[in-house]
């Protein structure tokens, strides 16, 4: 929801209330998310390279397949711990209003990654088709990661606008 501010511009509702921000800053799950997100992104980049190498050369299938499994496991880890974080901060495991659309899209990302695991374990798709499915999962992940980065940026801008907020000075400097 947006309110009309000075000069007729629309002011966006802050991502966190003061109490939610306090809970976010006090939660150990915030650090867990802060560590897992870049780890998952690094795994994604390595795996993407291996998948593209396989598709281009037909070499390295096992390494590419293993890397997609590792990427999927890191996704599950960040989704589970992210749900716990969301419960601590917003009082619900998923679909808190502040992250509703990110969570909706995360379900697609999870579904595509899980479909890859099913295809790999059952042989329902050939090797190339499995890699194309992995690429679809990775495209969805890239969109979802961008959603979360934009939310993090919005939260930092909110805190920079409210210097009295807990942690504002630290986040504004970051």
Structure description:
- This protein is mainly alpha-helical.
- The chain has one domain (26-156).
- Helices cover 76% and strands 3% of the residues.
- The protein is built from six helices and two strands, in the order ββαααααα.
- The chain has helices at residues 18-26, 28-57, 61-90, 100-122, 127-161, 168-173, and strands at residues 2-4, 10-12.
- Strands 1-2 form a two-stranded antiparallel sheet.
- β1 and β2 (10-12) form a beta hairpin.
- α2 (28-57) packs antiparallel against α3 and α4 packs antiparallel against α5.
- The longest helix is centred in the C-terminal third of the chain and has 35 residues, at 127-161.
- It is elongated.
- Residues 1-5 and 167-174 have low confidence and may be disordered.
User: Structurally, how many domains make up the residues?
Assistant: 1
Radius of gyration: 19 Å
Strand order of the largest sheet: 1-2
Q: Roughly how much helix do the residues carry, as a percent range? A: over 70%
Tally of DSSP helical segments: 6
Based on secondary structure, the structural category is mainly alpha
How is the topology of this model organized?
Elements: E1 2-4, E2 10-12, H1 18-26, H2 28-57, H3 61-90, H4 100-122, H5 127-161, H6 168-173
Helix pairs in contact: 1-3, 2-3, 2-5, 3-4, 4-5
Q: How would you briefly describe this protein structure?
A:
The protein is mainly alpha-helical and 174 residues long.
Question: What attributes characterize this protein structure?
Answer:
mainly alpha; 6 helices; 174 residues; disordered N terminus
């Amino acid at each position: 929801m947006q309110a009309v501010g000075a000069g007729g511009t629309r002011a966006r509702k802050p991502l966190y209330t003061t109490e939610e921000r306090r809970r976010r800053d006090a939660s150990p799950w915030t650090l867990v998310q802060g560590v897992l997100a870049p780890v998952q992104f690094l795994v994604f980049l390595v795996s993407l390279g291996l998948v593209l190498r396989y598709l281009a050369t037909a070499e390295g299938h096992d390494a590419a397949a293993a890397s997609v499994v590792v990427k999927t496991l890191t996704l599950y880890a960040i989704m589970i711990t992210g749900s716990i974080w969301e419960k601590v901060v917003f009082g619900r495991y998923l679909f808190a209003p502040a992250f509703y659309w990110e969570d909706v899209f995360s379900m697609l990302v999870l579904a595509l990654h899980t479909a890859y695991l099913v295809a790999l374990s059952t042989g329902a798709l050939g090797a190339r088709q499995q890699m194309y499915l992995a690429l679809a999962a990775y495209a969805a992940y890239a969109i979802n990661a961008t959603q979360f980065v934009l939310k993090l940026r919005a939260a930092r801008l909110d805190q920079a606008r409210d210097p009295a907020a807990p942690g504002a000075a630290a986040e504004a400097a970051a």
